[in-house]
Amino acid sequence: MSGGTPLAIYDFDGTMISGDSIVAYLRFAHARKALTLRELCAAAAAGLLSRLGLLSAGEAKRRALRFLERLTPEAQTALDRDFAELLLRRLRPDAICQMAQDQAAGRLILLLSASTENYMAPLAGRIGVGGLICTRIAELPEGNCRGEAKVRRLRAWLDENGITPDFPASAAYGDSAGDAPVLALTGHPTLVNPTRRALRKLKGRFPAVHWSDQRG
């Protein structure tokens, strides 16, 4: 026996929910009049440049969230709290069931996401996970928690918390090719509703499942 702690590592966007939470956050902020139409368009332009490879994902995210600098702390806290409540209602039922199964199996539940801590922290508090590792706005653009950076951040978090992981007994869930480095760490990796790119690049490497968005 390894004597380490088995983990259950969950990606968020595309895995626990459908779609991209940053995009949803910007739309939510615009609907709440915290984000102007001009700022929303600028964020969309940054996202397009990133997809074309002309801008890093971290820089696109930094530009998109720049509007937060002019909000009062109270206004941002309310915005983030209310958006976290919205995300809570969007969680895939299969994700919730799987988390319960992992907890019953004695695994430490971790959220490991490229999404930002301003709304992920209140969400993680509502879900009751064992740990949250995500992008810190203050560290953008370099500190975007995606791809290989997820592995580095995960190992750093484990070291900081004095946790020795039992990776062979651990599980990981992700939807994209960018999640492959984390999936490959564990003995029980699962592709959830994988993107087409993930299926092309990772075909045969990890088992795939479909988690429904439907409740009831």
List keywords for this structure.
13% strand, 216 residues, alpha/beta, 9 helices, Rossmann fold
Main beta sheet strand tally, sense and closure: 6 strands, parallel
The percentage of residues in β strands lies in 5-15%
CATH fold assignment: Rossmann fold
Number of domains: 1
Q: Taking strands numbered 1, 2, ... along the chain, how are they ordered across the largest sheet?
A: 3-2-1-4-5-6
What is the CATH architecture term?
Answer: 3-Layer(aba) Sandwich
CA gyration radius, whole angstroms: 17 Å
- The string of secondary-structure elements, in order, is EHHHHHEHEHEHEHE
CATH class descriptor:
Alpha Beta
Strand segment tally: 6
User: What's the name of the CATH homologous superfamily?
Assistant: HAD superfamily/HAD-like
Percent helix range = 40-55%
> What structural class results from the helix and strand content?
alpha/beta
Globally, the shape reads globular
- Uncertain segments are none
Question: Could you explain how this protein is built, in words?
Answer:
- The structure is a single chain.
- With 216 residues, this protein is of the alpha/beta class.
- The chain has one domain: Rossmann fold.
- The chain is 46% helix and 13% strand.
- The protein is built from nine helices and six strands.
- It has helices at residues 21-31, 37-51, 57-64, 73-90, 93-104, 117-127, 148-160, 180-183, 196-202; strands at 7-10, 108-116, 131-135, 171-174, 188-192, 208-209.
- Strands 3-2-1-4-5-6 form a six-stranded parallel sheet.
- Helix 2 (37-51) packs antiparallel against helix 3.
- The longest helix has 18 residues, at 73-90.
- The model has no long low-confidence stretch (mean pLDDT 95).
